[in-house]
Protein backbone atom coordinates (compact mmCIF):
# COMPACT_ATOMS: atom_id res chain seq x y z
CA UNK A 1 0.00 0.00 0.00
CA UNK A 2 1.41 3.35 -0.90
CA UNK A 3 0.56 6.36 1.18
CA UNK A 4 1.57 8.90 -1.39
CA UNK A 5 2.05 8.49 -5.09
CA UNK A 6 3.26 11.32 -7.31
CA UNK A 7 2.92 10.80 -11.04
CA UNK A 8 4.67 12.90 -13.68
CA UNK A 9 4.35 16.04 -11.59
CA UNK A 10 5.22 19.29 -13.30
CA UNK A 11 5.22 22.82 -11.95
CA UNK A 12 6.10 26.03 -13.72
CA UNK A 13 6.21 29.57 -12.41
CA UNK A 14 5.75 31.62 -15.57
CA UNK A 15 8.42 30.38 -17.95
CA UNK A 16 10.48 28.77 -15.19
CA UNK A 17 9.88 25.03 -15.08
CA UNK A 18 10.71 24.08 -11.50
CA UNK A 19 9.45 20.46 -11.46
CA UNK A 20 9.99 18.60 -14.71
CA UNK A 21 8.20 15.30 -14.35
CA UNK A 22 8.57 13.86 -10.85
CA UNK A 23 7.50 10.27 -10.13
CA UNK A 24 7.76 9.27 -6.50
CA UNK A 25 5.96 6.94 -4.13
CA UNK A 26 6.19 6.62 -0.39
CA UNK A 27 4.76 3.38 0.94
CA UNK A 28 2.87 3.32 4.21
CA UNK A 29 5.25 3.31 7.13
CA UNK A 30 8.24 4.29 5.02
CA UNK A 31 10.54 7.28 5.32
CA UNK A 32 11.80 8.91 2.14
CA UNK A 33 14.37 11.69 2.42
CA UNK A 34 14.76 14.20 -0.40
CA UNK A 35 18.15 15.85 -0.80
CA UNK A 36 19.48 18.22 -3.40
CA UNK A 37 20.95 21.65 -4.02
CA UNK A 38 19.20 24.92 -3.27
CA UNK A 39 16.65 25.78 -5.94
CA UNK A 40 16.30 22.20 -7.19
CA UNK A 41 12.56 22.21 -6.40
CA UNK A 42 12.39 20.29 -3.11
CA UNK A 43 10.08 22.73 -1.32
CA UNK A 44 7.96 23.15 -4.42
CA UNK A 45 7.55 19.36 -4.55
CA UNK A 46 6.25 19.22 -0.96
CA UNK A 47 4.05 22.26 -1.56
CA UNK A 48 2.53 20.57 -4.60
CA UNK A 49 1.88 17.40 -2.59
CA UNK A 50 -0.29 19.28 -0.11
CA UNK A 51 -1.59 21.66 -2.77
CA UNK A 52 -0.18 24.81 -1.26
CA UNK A 53 0.90 25.11 -4.90
CA UNK A 54 -1.29 24.01 -7.76
CA UNK A 55 0.71 21.60 -9.94
CA UNK A 56 0.87 22.55 -13.62
CA UNK A 57 0.23 18.92 -14.55
CA UNK A 58 0.52 15.44 -13.11
CA UNK A 59 -1.21 13.65 -10.28
CA UNK A 60 -0.84 13.29 -6.54
CA UNK A 61 -2.59 10.46 -4.69
CA UNK A 62 -2.74 10.18 -0.91
CA UNK A 63 -4.15 6.93 0.44
CA UNK A 64 -5.46 6.28 -3.06
CA UNK A 65 -7.41 9.55 -3.17
CA UNK A 66 -6.38 11.83 -6.00
CA UNK A 67 -5.71 15.26 -4.51
CA UNK A 68 -5.23 16.73 -7.97
CA UNK A 69 -8.73 15.66 -9.04
CA UNK A 70 -10.60 18.94 -9.58
CA UNK A 71 -13.68 17.47 -7.87
CA UNK A 72 -11.91 16.31 -4.72
CA UNK A 73 -12.84 17.83 -1.34
CA UNK A 74 -9.52 19.53 -0.96
CA UNK A 75 -9.86 20.40 2.72
CA UNK A 76 -10.76 16.83 3.60
CA UNK A 77 -7.91 15.49 1.48
CA UNK A 78 -5.40 17.90 2.96
CA UNK A 79 -6.29 16.77 6.47
CA UNK A 80 -4.52 13.51 5.70
CA UNK A 81 -1.25 15.43 5.55
CA UNK A 82 0.76 16.89 8.39
CA UNK A 83 3.25 19.54 7.39
CA UNK A 84 6.25 20.79 9.34
CA UNK A 85 8.16 23.72 7.89
CA UNK A 86 11.50 25.31 8.58
CA UNK A 87 9.62 28.12 10.36
CA UNK A 88 7.36 26.83 13.11
CA UNK A 89 4.47 29.29 12.63
CA UNK A 90 3.07 28.88 16.14
CA UNK A 91 0.57 31.43 17.44
CA UNK A 92 2.68 33.55 19.83
CA UNK A 93 -0.28 34.72 21.90
CA UNK A 94 -1.56 31.19 22.60
CA UNK A 95 -0.16 28.62 25.01
CA UNK A 96 1.52 25.51 23.72
CA UNK A 97 -1.57 23.48 24.64
CA UNK A 98 -3.86 25.85 22.78
CA UNK A 99 -1.56 25.84 19.74
CA UNK A 100 -2.01 22.06 19.61
CA UNK A 101 -5.78 22.04 20.24
CA UNK A 102 -7.01 24.91 18.08
CA UNK A 103 -7.08 23.16 14.71
CA UNK A 104 -8.37 19.95 16.27
CA UNK A 105 -11.39 21.89 17.53
CA UNK A 106 -11.92 24.18 14.55
CA UNK A 107 -11.06 21.84 11.71
CA UNK A 108 -11.86 18.38 13.09
CA UNK A 109 -14.69 19.54 15.36
CA UNK A 110 -13.32 17.78 18.43
CA UNK A 111 -14.58 18.91 21.81
CA UNK A 112 -12.22 20.76 24.08
CA UNK A 113 -11.63 17.91 26.56
CA UNK A 114 -10.83 15.43 23.81
CA UNK A 115 -8.60 17.91 21.98
CA UNK A 116 -6.67 18.60 25.19
CA UNK A 117 -6.27 14.91 25.97
CA UNK A 118 -4.87 14.29 22.48
CA UNK A 119 -2.67 17.40 22.68
CA UNK A 120 -1.16 16.21 25.95
CA UNK A 121 -0.46 12.78 24.47
CA UNK A 122 1.28 14.32 21.47
CA UNK A 123 3.23 16.79 23.61
CA UNK A 124 4.37 13.79 25.65
CA UNK A 125 5.44 12.10 22.43
CA UNK A 126 7.71 15.01 21.52
CA UNK A 127 9.06 15.29 25.08
CA UNK A 128 7.26 18.50 26.02
CA UNK A 129 4.52 17.40 28.40
CA UNK A 130 5.78 19.92 30.95
CA UNK A 131 5.50 22.88 28.53
CA UNK A 132 1.74 22.77 27.90
CA UNK A 133 1.16 26.04 29.73
CA UNK A 134 4.12 27.93 28.27
CA UNK A 135 3.99 30.45 25.42
CA UNK A 136 6.05 29.88 22.26
CA UNK A 137 8.30 32.84 23.10
CA UNK A 138 9.36 31.06 26.29
CA UNK A 139 10.63 28.03 24.36
CA UNK A 140 13.82 27.35 22.43
CA UNK A 141 13.64 26.98 18.66
CA UNK A 142 13.99 23.23 18.96
CA UNK A 143 11.17 23.07 21.49
CA UNK A 144 8.98 25.24 19.27
CA UNK A 145 9.64 22.93 16.34
CA UNK A 146 8.65 19.95 18.49
CA UNK A 147 5.39 21.74 19.37
CA UNK A 148 4.82 22.19 15.64
CA UNK A 149 5.34 18.44 15.20
CA UNK A 150 2.88 17.70 18.03
CA UNK A 151 0.37 20.06 16.44
CA UNK A 152 0.63 18.17 13.14
CA UNK A 153 0.40 14.77 14.87
CA UNK A 154 -2.73 15.80 16.76
CA UNK A 155 -4.58 15.92 13.44
CA UNK A 156 -3.92 12.17 12.91
CA UNK A 157 -2.27 12.55 9.52
CA UNK A 158 -1.59 9.48 7.42
CA UNK A 159 1.52 11.17 6.07
CA UNK A 160 3.92 13.75 7.50
CA UNK A 161 5.78 16.16 5.23
CA UNK A 162 8.88 17.86 6.64
CA UNK A 163 10.64 20.71 4.84
CA UNK A 164 14.07 21.22 6.36
CA UNK A 165 12.67 21.12 9.89
CA UNK A 166 16.05 21.65 11.55
CA UNK A 167 17.74 24.14 9.26
CA UNK A 168 16.62 27.23 11.19
CA UNK A 169 17.87 25.79 14.49
CA UNK A 170 21.08 26.37 16.39
CA UNK A 171 23.25 23.28 15.98
CA UNK A 172 22.86 22.16 19.58
CA UNK A 173 19.05 22.07 19.20
CA UNK A 174 18.98 19.96 16.03
CA UNK A 175 19.48 16.64 17.80
CA UNK A 176 16.29 16.82 19.90
CA UNK A 177 14.15 17.41 16.83
CA UNK A 178 15.83 14.60 14.91
CA UNK A 179 15.32 12.30 17.90
CA UNK A 180 11.59 13.00 17.79
CA UNK A 181 11.52 12.36 14.05
CA UNK A 182 13.48 9.13 14.44
CA UNK A 183 10.95 7.97 17.04
CA UNK A 184 8.05 8.81 14.72
CA UNK A 185 9.68 6.74 12.01
CA UNK A 186 10.13 3.83 14.43
CA UNK A 187 6.45 4.13 15.37
CA UNK A 188 5.60 3.56 11.70
CA UNK A 189 4.71 7.08 10.58
CA UNK A 190 4.92 7.61 6.83
CA UNK A 191 7.28 10.51 6.22
CA UNK A 192 8.54 12.54 3.28
CA UNK A 193 11.43 14.61 4.55
CA UNK A 194 13.46 17.31 2.81
CA UNK A 195 16.67 17.53 4.78
CA UNK A 196 20.33 18.44 4.70
CA UNK A 197 21.01 16.12 7.63
CA UNK A 198 22.86 13.34 5.82
CA UNK A 199 23.51 11.31 8.98
CA UNK A 200 19.79 11.33 9.74
CA UNK A 201 18.90 10.38 6.16
CA UNK A 202 21.42 7.58 6.21
CA UNK A 203 20.17 6.16 9.45
CA UNK A 204 16.40 6.66 9.21
CA UNK A 205 15.41 6.77 5.54
CA UNK A 206 14.18 3.70 3.72
CA UNK A 207 14.97 5.52 0.50
CA UNK A 208 16.86 8.66 -0.42
CA UNK A 209 15.95 10.75 -3.45
CA UNK A 210 18.47 13.16 -4.97
CA UNK A 211 16.84 16.00 -6.91
CA UNK A 212 18.53 18.50 -9.15
CA UNK A 213 16.98 21.07 -11.49
CA UNK A 214 13.47 19.73 -11.12
CA UNK A 215 14.14 16.06 -11.79
CA UNK A 216 14.99 13.03 -9.69
CA UNK A 217 18.55 12.24 -10.66
CA UNK A 218 19.01 9.21 -8.45
CA UNK A 219 17.11 7.30 -5.80
CA UNK A 220 17.67 4.20 -3.77
CA UNK A 221 18.65 2.94 -0.33
CA UNK A 222 20.62 5.52 1.67
CA UNK A 223 23.74 3.41 1.72
CA UNK A 224 23.80 3.56 -2.04
CA UNK A 225 22.67 7.14 -2.79
CA UNK A 226 24.68 8.74 0.02
CA UNK A 227 27.31 6.05 0.47
CA UNK A 228 28.23 5.32 -3.13
CA UNK A 229 26.23 7.50 -5.53
CA UNK A 230 26.23 6.45 -9.17
CA UNK A 231 25.51 9.78 -10.82
CA UNK A 232 28.15 12.44 -11.09
CA UNK A 233 25.75 15.22 -10.05
CA UNK A 234 24.96 13.32 -6.86
CA UNK A 235 28.66 12.78 -6.17
CA UNK A 236 29.40 16.49 -6.65
CA UNK A 237 26.52 17.53 -4.38
CA UNK A 238 27.50 15.13 -1.62
CA UNK A 239 31.14 16.17 -1.76
CA UNK A 240 30.03 19.75 -1.13
CA UNK A 241 27.57 18.87 1.63
CA UNK A 242 29.80 16.44 3.45
CA UNK A 243 32.92 18.66 3.17
CA UNK A 244 31.46 22.17 3.31
CA UNK A 245 34.84 23.84 3.73
CA UNK A 246 36.48 21.87 0.95
CA UNK A 247 37.19 23.86 -2.21
CA UNK A 248 37.16 21.82 -5.43
N1 LIG B 1 6.11 31.17 -5.81
C1 LIG B 1 7.15 31.16 -6.66
N2 LIG B 1 7.19 31.98 -7.73
C2 LIG B 1 8.23 31.95 -8.58
N3 LIG B 1 9.29 31.13 -8.47
C3 LIG B 1 9.31 30.30 -7.44
C4 LIG B 1 8.25 30.25 -6.47
N4 LIG B 1 8.56 29.31 -5.56
C5 LIG B 1 9.75 28.78 -5.93
N5 LIG B 1 10.21 29.38 -7.06
C6 LIG B 1 11.45 29.04 -7.75
O1 LIG B 1 11.48 27.65 -7.96
C7 LIG B 1 12.79 27.13 -7.82
C8 LIG B 1 12.78 26.00 -6.82
O2 LIG B 1 12.49 26.54 -5.54
P1 LIG B 1 12.33 25.62 -4.25
O3 LIG B 1 12.01 26.53 -3.13
O4 LIG B 1 11.40 24.52 -4.54
O5 LIG B 1 13.82 25.04 -4.12
P2 LIG B 1 14.44 24.17 -2.94
O6 LIG B 1 15.04 22.96 -3.56
O7 LIG B 1 13.46 23.98 -1.86
O8 LIG B 1 15.64 25.11 -2.44
P3 LIG B 1 16.23 25.34 -0.94
O9 LIG B 1 17.16 24.17 -0.68
O10 LIG B 1 17.00 26.63 -1.06
O11 LIG B 1 15.09 25.42 0.00
C9 LIG B 1 13.67 28.30 -7.46
O12 LIG B 1 14.29 28.77 -8.63
C10 LIG B 1 12.68 29.33 -6.93
O13 LIG B 1 13.15 30.62 -7.15
MG1 LIG C 1 13.34 24.58 0.13
From TrEMBL:
CDD domains: ABC_HisP_GlnQ. It comes from Thermocatellispora tengchongensis. Its EC number is 7.4.2.1. It comes from the Bacteria. Keywords: Amino-acid transport, ATP-binding, Cell membrane, Membrane, Nucleotide-binding, Transport. Belongs to the ABC transporter superfamily. Gene3D superfamilies: P-loop containing nucleotide triphosphate hydrolases. This is ABC-type polar-amino-acid transporter.
Amino acid sequence: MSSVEIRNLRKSFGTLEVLRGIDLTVDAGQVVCVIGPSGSGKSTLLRCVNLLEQPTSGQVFVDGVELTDPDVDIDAARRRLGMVFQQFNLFPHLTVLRNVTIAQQRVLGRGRAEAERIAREDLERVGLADKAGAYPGQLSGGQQQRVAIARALAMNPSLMLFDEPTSALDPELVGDVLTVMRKLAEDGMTMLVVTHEMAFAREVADRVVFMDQGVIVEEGPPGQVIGSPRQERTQTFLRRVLNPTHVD
